[in-house]
Amino acid sequence: MILLKGITLDGRCIDMLIAEGRIARIGPEGACTTWELAGDVEMMDCRGKVAIPGFVNMHTHAGMALMRGIGEDVVFADWIRKIWEVEKHIDEEFVYWSTKVACMEMIRTGTTTFNDQYWHFTAGHRAAADTGIRVATGFDIMDQGNPEEAAREQERCTRWYEEEGHKWTDGSIWQLAFHAIYSVSEPMMLWAADFARSHDLGLHIHLCETRKEVEDCKAAHGGLTPVEYLDRLGILGPRLIAAHTLWVSENDIRLLAEAGVHCVHNINSNAKISSGYRFLYDEMRDAGINVCLGTDGCASSNNLDMLEVMKTSALFQKAWRGNPRAMPLDELLRMATVNGAKALRLDTGRLEEGAVADINIIDTDNSFFLSPGPFLANLVYSAHSDCIDSVICNGRFVMRHREIEGERETLAQARKLLTKIQ
Known about the structure:
single chain; alpha/beta; Urease, subunit C, domain 1; TIM Barrel; six-stranded parallel β-sheet; 15 helices; 18 strands
């Protein structure tokens, strides 16, 4: 059990008890003295600190954490060709340690769950499990239109699901992914969607990331946008998690909303590779779409800091719309927490009795919070992620007072593997 004494939650000073991975009790400060606590209790004096939900990073490629800076100042088409060339040299060992580096970085910046899409996903899952945070991941399909490769991927996906899919007991989520409509054949997309549907799995894809993707799809499929094309194929649905959804039309938004698709905004990656920045958040929200936030991988966004993503997302929305009220703070926090939890069907992203205990403990004893302004404004627009003092995931400390177990060893091991991609 963990007892957080005197922590601030929604402006109230409270005591919070965490037991069996969940928030067991919340009461006013001092209430813990009246609680009957059986067994060992790890106590933390949290006076001067604030609790918020752990962040849910809804689009990552964690195994790319060692690829920062390898494709700078180039257009998307050149960038992705460079990535695919580099990825010919990676293996399970590389992905394990690279993902472990990513997990350390995500813990330091407050992420307790990440929705991943990458090769050697079992190695990525082990890395997340070894660091104590939760991952949603699974087989990543990209047959590049090759029927023989498609058959091999179908066999491997089926076998891995049968061998791994029911064995994860650490809270991680087995799901399926296909890269994009331009890198996966139509028969393979249909197979993946059917496999996900029949096994009640999430399906994680890139969608409408660039203007070229939309134009190429229209040229190839009788004027249909990528969203309209997937709708015609019957792939849209409530288990679909669509990363980017940047170049969408009014009709696309209607189709996404009617199907219950979850959309993930990745502003840092989109802006850095010049894919675009006019994400139609207001229109999606008003249509009823569950909009989440993600960092994308380190090869395109260069870090995995969700607090930075929150700030950048809001600034771009306010700027291009000419409206300072765009993407307000309360909606921004939901996009980074409970909206992602909803997409992954997790009982977290909120700090209430009974919820899974994924918690960021924010230290306000610094200059960024010396203000009468709202806490969230200071957190998002002023502070940096080093104000995150401690992180709890699944009811366990994964970082306490900025200390993460095994971090130095992880960095040393990962550094040795850089030779594989140099």
